[in-house]
């Protein structure tokens, strides 16, 4: 139990003479005041006895204060009765103290009712505690209101917020902080406060601000967090700094992250060090990552161990990552297991990946499942891959289920695989939804497949009065271009074809050339066709040869025809034979006829 007669409580008795200036009285003035009160007390002045007793009590002179307070109490002074209770409580006579508090409380002393209520709560008598604390609170006693709110909150009583608000409005900083926390937990439901409508989050910020302004370091931390999320980084940094200087390690850590993001890594390291030394695991992890980035692996390992010792499971996980990078596989597995058993989902996923790499799919699967059930989208995707690699129908359905769960969590590759699976099942609507998510997440393959799906649905080109087609840029072309810009070769060929259809030869050639130079045989073949139409047959032949060497049958047939037309029958026969081998069927058929004709010509 806190001392109930501390300075704040004693001042509330109204018996102390307050200095008239903004500063406390100096020692000479206080001594003169004490001497004056002592003379009055010796003359029988009850008020002087009470005030002098309180002054001595505050100073710690219990032996000098007790007779004065007892004398004033005997004359019916309720402030003296309250302070006598405080004195006896300090001496260890709790029951006698409670008796005097009861006398003062019955006489109308709000501080005594507060002290008596706390006395009963400490002894487990909550009904009596609530009665006296309510008496104190209803008389306007701030500490009484806070203590009543604390009691009611402990019992989950809805009346707790009302009294916490009363205490906060009267300047109790812990009440302001706890009221803010309660409002934070309420979520986004609107409430009415005063005469305007505000959300709990907005009102919580107001109370955090009030508590922080009164020096509450955790309130300053939460206020900084709210401001950081809003993007007010400068003000957030100020409150983090205030809280950190008051000894809050989480604020020091948050301030360090702000400084790092602003490019001041050295200052960030200073605050991370301060927070880590005060036992903040997150800061220790950040220091570990900083040293690992600099190649100082031994120092990094030391800080990761410090994070782990502080109860932060990320420490063990990061140690696993560090060991894995150094090819210390056995140690990596050990650290991953430690973090995974403690509930670290990404460690469970990393452990499963490690086991899978060593051929232990049976051991990997339960860890993937544990991580996925805990919300790891990477683990859900990996489970999808695991099931997709099996042959049963149930496995295929399971793979799709995990792909879709990972896709719902924002995993781009999982959305692509879910889209492909839905396309295979003929569910174009679901496939389109997944492909749009994956394409929006930056997957070139998803953008290409989405464009192909939309391309099939594209209506035929309209024509204007003169019979020429009206070229309209469709959505599928936009997706083709997005995929092409990210280096997707088939998309580049398709964009080139669409450009050629519009008559934009330069644009078509650009995309065909990009695809061809990246290894696309279709790109090389189409570029050859474009060059041949433009009269550049020698260059066209170069690209057809590249395409034919990569297995393109039509390119081989084009080369056969070109060589034959130029009189090089042997070379023409060679490429015709190659075209027969490569196909497809209609190409092989034409090439076979050409080959046979050239054979007859050469044997004639």
UniProtKB/TrEMBL annotation:
Q: Which residues form a coiled coil?
A: none
- Tell me what this protein is called: Sel1 repeat family protein
Gene3D superfamilies given in the database record: Tetratricopeptide repeat domain (1.25.40.10)
Domain of life of the organism in this record? Bacteria
InterPro entries, sorted: Sel1-like, Sel1_AlgK, TPR-like_helical_dom_sf
What Pfam families does this protein map onto? Sel1 (PF08238), TPR_16 (PF13432)
